[in-house]
Amino acid sequence: MEFKVTRNPNPTPASEREEIIANPVFGAKLTDHQVVVVWEKDKGWHSAEVIPYGPIMMDPSAAVLHYGQEIFEGIKAYRHQDGSIWTFRPEANAARLQRSARRMALPELPAEIFVESLRQLIAVDGAWVPTPEGEKTLYFRPFEIAAENFLGVRAAQRAEYRVIASPVGPYFTGGVKPVSIWIALDSARAGKHGTGEAKTGGNYAASLLAQQVGYENGCSQVMFLDAETSTYIEELGGMNLFFVYRDGHVATPSLDGTILHGITRDSVITLMRDRGIEVQERKVSLDEVREGVKTGDIVEVFACGTAAVITPVGTLKSSVEEIVIGGNEPGRLTVEMRMELTGIQYGIRPDRHNWMLKL
Ligand code: PLP
Ligand code: COI
């Protein structure tokens, strides 16, 4: 698909851009351009364009504003030491965007258009990709919205795919310091046959109230349990979880329909299995974790995701308890996996699985 490119006539001055990318705050500043591709039921995908960054003109009756028919992705561009710009497993994000689209009755964007949209944005905004020190990257936010003006409740017949990008530093500003997690005992994110596996705005909207309570209690993320029995650990509001046992094996909640299929999760499982570590994908109950931490059987807990990379979890907290893991210090495997994954992404460790794509 050909992309029509219209350059921003008033781009951010270079000095201002350099200042922003030297010290980026997650999602606070956006680059100078965006990608738009339109879909209409009778025409398919068309009108691919790179245009100046700016507001979306939208009719107040646009379906996305009323019924939340929206999906998104999160993927990063990494600058290597030689200045080249790379991304990580884009075909996995493209495939997940398609799965999210199917669940939310939105059109599936062909994977080639997804990858090309990242290339097109980098072609005009490549200068926004920071140098790698301090784990800086350019975070792409591809998303799809129902853009039909119609108040009837049905799948929209017009949709838009867009990509915007923001230079980012670590999601958690404390660096590799362990984070505290609030256990949502009375709030669920996703239920059986619901939309938990889709990366759709509604799942995040459902998590915000618990997130607010978490913040009030000194926690930076919320851990959700299964909606039916509040017994099994699912995931955080924006990350997957891993539990490291003293005997060397690792467990992570299985993908049973309600949690996001994290690409970092999948990559970490692969890298650990490469090292001969046994990784169990199974149900993990809060009781098991509470007991395991108490007896010393569980020695590390970490969260992972594109934004958060790999972040140690130091404390799990609720209104009734506080579970402190590994003396609230980052665990050995957590730190090693973080170095290995970021090493691959920044081009300083071998990419044995061909995960990196040059943009
Ligand atoms: N779980 C949720 C709810 C998320 O929002 C994310 C972030 O994208 C993840 C897990 C981790 O997924 P990934 O590793 O693909 O970024
Ligand atoms: C990501 O990691 O890409 C996410 O979408 C999670 C969110 C916390 C920003």
Attached small molecules: pyridoxal-5'-phosphate, 2-OXO-4-methylpentanoic acid
User: How many β-strands, per DSSP?
Assistant: 18
How many domains, as an integer? 2
Order of helices and strands: EHEEHEEEHHEEEHEEEEHEHEEEHE
The whole-number mean of residue pLDDT values reads 96
The rounded distance between the terminal residues' Cα atoms is 17 Å
CATH topology of the largest domain: D-amino Acid Aminotransferase, Chain A, domain 2
What is the H level of CATH, i.e. the homologous superfamily of the largest domain? D-amino Acid Aminotransferase, subunit A, domain 2
Assign the structural class, choosing from mainly alpha, mainly beta, alpha/beta, alpha+beta, or little secondary structure.
Answer: alpha+beta
The backbone outline, from C-alpha atoms, is globular
Radius of gyration: 21 Å
In which range does the helix fraction lie? 25-40%
Biggest pleated sheet? 9 strands, mixed
CATH architecture of the largest domain: Alpha-Beta Barrel
